[in-house]
Every structure is written in structure tokens, then in C-alpha cells.
Amino acid sequence: ARGQRKIDEFFGKN
Amino acid sequence: MFEARLVSSSTFKKILDAVKDLLNEASFDCSESGIQLQAMDNSHVSLVSLMLRSDGFDKYRCDRSLTMGMNLANMAKIFKCANNDDTVTIKAQDDADTVTFMFEAKKQEKISDYEMKLMNLDQEHLGIPETDFSCVIRMPSPEFARICRDLSQFGESIVISCTKEGVKFSTGGDIGTANVKIAQTNNFDKEEESVTIEMQEPVTLTFACQYLNSFTKATPLAPQVQLSMSDNVPLVVEYQIPDLGHLRFYLAPKIED
Predict the structure, then answer these.
(1) pLDDT level of residue B124 (50, 70, 90 thresholds)
(2) pLDDT tens per residue, range B187-209
(3) Nearest to B28 by CA among B252, B250, B245
(4) Tens digits of per-residue pLDDT, B144-162?
(5) What is the model's pLDDT at position A1?
(6) Residue B60: which H helix or E strand, with range?
């Protein structure tokens, strides 16, 4: 959807 | 050997109901401290984080940490076979490729067991940083579910705006606009019905209704829900599972047009 950010932009991979 | 026993299988039924819209499968990480699950939905917009502490179980034994990949729809099928007040025991051998769920009726008049094949899931774990949130809102979980349901009739997004006056949930669409304002309550007698707002800084963020509505499937788990927000970080929607742990949903915000 337009303007929807992704959660993995915020949390780095362990 | 892994073995975890919980007197009421209804807790697991509720957890599965709460996450099955978002997740098709998930890895359950079992260790001495308890059972943990962390998984993103297919679109990578939200993250589910479940923690069930070992001391919340009636019996818990985990000799060696293990990860059990499970298909949640199949797990839900198995739990449908249990009565709410059946005791559930989850068992797996070390390095096993199956897990067994045993359900016992209260008077031991019926004992059933279901063995399910485990899956090899290549799931990545995300590091969730500790955050001091600008706003933490606690409110009755059915009220939050009601607001999300009501507002999603009018728009695809909900703007949550928290100030010291209260919390405002807003949406808009072709029909028009809708606003619901919730104020902090002074009713300290009924904790379950109270609304509390801890605010350091006012925050306004926009979220997709579809995800908020999915999260509210967890409502039967807890009488209260906690919403934590800071500018430009994911919303945390948390349901405390009494004496056992918590179920948290993280939702990435939308960028407003």
C-alpha cells in the first residue's frame, strides 16, 4: 500500500 | 527432551486465533527461560513477538534449546480438538522432526494425543531496540478493538494522536471523517476499565487499519491493551497474558501524504 513502511526498515537483522 | 504442560489449553487457542491472520507458519524457540516466537507477516509490515515464561507453565522441562517450526493452521486444527479446560502437554525429543500435543480432560476420562510434523523454517530474527516511548496508553482491550472496527468502515488508515488531553483516533475516506477521543479515567477501582496515558512528548502517527484489526484478535487474551508510540518508530500493541507472558505486535507506520 502507498506510504506503508516496512518493519525491517526499523529493526536490524540479528 | 522438551516438555511443557499448561492446565488450560484455551490460552493456546487464543494465541493461535490472535496470530493466524498474520502468520502462516512460525518457529517456536524453546529454552530454559520459556517459549518465544518472533515472526514478520508476509508483507514485512508487522512483527509478532510472543513470550511464554517457563515459570508460567505447570510443568516445564527443556534439556536443550530447540526450535520448532510449525504450520499455525495445522496447529490450530489440533487445538480445535481440545476442550478449553483440557490440560495440554507439548512434547518433543531433542532433534526430533515431530511435536506431540497431549490433551487431558479434567477428570482424566479422556486423553488424546496428536503428533505433528515440524517444518524447517529459515526465519530471520530481528533485533528490537529498547525504546523509551514518548507515549504509553493503557486502555480496555475491547474498547480498542471496537474503535479499530468502527473506524475501519470509513478509511484504510487510522491516525493515532496522543496528547496530554487524551488519545484521538481519526480516519477519513469517501464517506467523510470519523474521530474518537478517549480521555484518561479517574476510576481507580476498576483497573480493567481504566484508561491511563503516560506522555513525555505528544505523538501523531498513521497506521493501516487492516493490521490494527488483526492485532485485536488477541483481545480475549487480556482485559487491557498497551499502545506504545514514539515519533517515526513502529507502534507496539501489547497484550499481557496473565501469569504467563505477553503477545506483542509491532506495526510500521505509514508515511502521510
Answers:
(1) confident
(2) 777 888 999 999 999 999 999 99
(3) B245
(4) 999 999 999 999 999 999 9
(5) 62
(6) strand B59-62
For residue B140, give the C-alpha cell. Answer: 480496555
> What are phi and psi for residue B251, nearest 5 degrees?
-130, 125
For the cut 90, the answer to whether the pLDDT of residue B164 exceeds it is: no
Summarize the confidence of residues B16-28 as an average pLDDT. Answer: 96
The three cell numbers locating residue B189: 477501582
Number of other residues whose CB lies within 10 A of the CB of residue B145: 19
Q: Hunting for cell 513477538 — which residue is that? A: B49
Q: Which residues of A touch B128 (CB under 8 A)?
A: 11
Quick check: B67 contacting A, CB < 8 Å?
no
CB A13 to CB B44 under 8 A? no
Question: A8: nearest CA in chain B?
Answer: B44
Q: Which of B72, B32, B29 is nearest to B49 (CA)?
A: B29
State the first-to-last Cα distance of chain A, in angstroms, to the nearest integer.
27
CB pair distance less than 8 Å for B255 and A5: yes
CB count, 10 Å around CB of B212? 26
DSSP letter at B76?
A: H
User: For residue B62, what are the β-bridge partners?
Assistant: B2
Residues of B in contact with A10 (CB under 8 A): 233-234, 252
Residues of A in contact with B45 (CB under 8 A): 4-7
Ramachandran category for residue B240: left, alpha or beta (phi over 0 → left; psi -120 to 50 → alpha): beta
Average predicted confidence (pLDDT) for chain B: 95
The tens digit of pLDDT for each residue in A1-14 reads 679 999 999 998 76
Q: Which residues pair with B206 in a beta bridge?
A: B159, B254
Contact in structure between B223 and B140 (CB atoms under 8 Å): yes
